[in-house]
Amino acid sequence: MAESPAIAATRRWVEQVVVGLNICPFAAAPVRGERIRYTLCEASQSETIYRALLKEMEDLIALPETVAEGSLLVVPRGLENFADYLELFQVAEAAIPEAGLEGILQLASFHPDYQFHGAAPDDPANYTNRSPYPMFHLIREAPLERALARHPDPEGIPARNIELLRRLGLQSMRDRLAACFDPSGDESGGESA
């Protein structure tokens, strides 16, 4: 069965932007080892999306870490408004300790209109969390903690990313995100950091 366009765009974004620019230095190994799940949520109602996210949590923790270190639940419809997305994200984040998964899973947020609190909408730094579609990233904490322990400067990652994306500029980041929707091209304006 062919991969959905939303999953294909997300996969290109992960490979070309997240790993390609080294925005998350911990992503390359699980991506190259195919230990990231890409799951499409076709629901468009918040309650149904929330249930799909809970199911994805269950599915992820049921798999061995050697098979899946994390999961991206991609939601093409229903959460286009960033405020609506953030509202559901906060509910979903609260579900982790309620499900007894604190210390086991954490949740990261990505959205096409992501904007950090206090940042201007056109700040290229927002592109550390701007993705082709709204999505929820479930991350297993154990492999992340091991990767953090091996990294020489985990606290410096956000500042490094801000500097890199601002140096690349807004148009470059817009182009990189747009290229994720093009199945024919390999957007490799590829500055690795």
Structure commentary:
- This protein is an alpha+beta fold and about 190 residues long.
- The chain has one domain (about 5-180).
- Helices cover about 45% and strands about 10% of the residues.
- The protein is built from seven helices and four strands; from the N terminus they run ααβαβαββααα.
- The protein has helices at about 5-20, 30, 45-60, 80-100, 140-150, 155-170, 170-180, and strands at about 35-40, 70-75, 105-110, 135-140.
- It has a four-stranded mixed beta sheet, sandwiched between helices.
- Helix 3 links the parallel strand 1 (about 35-40) and strand 2 (about 70-75).
- Helix 3 (about 45-60) crosses helix 4.
- The longest helix is centred in the first third of the chain and has 17 residues, at about 45-60.
- The chain is globular.
- It starts with a helix and ends in a 14-residue tail after the last helix.
- About 30% of the residues are buried.
- Mean pLDDT is about 95; it is low at about 185-193.
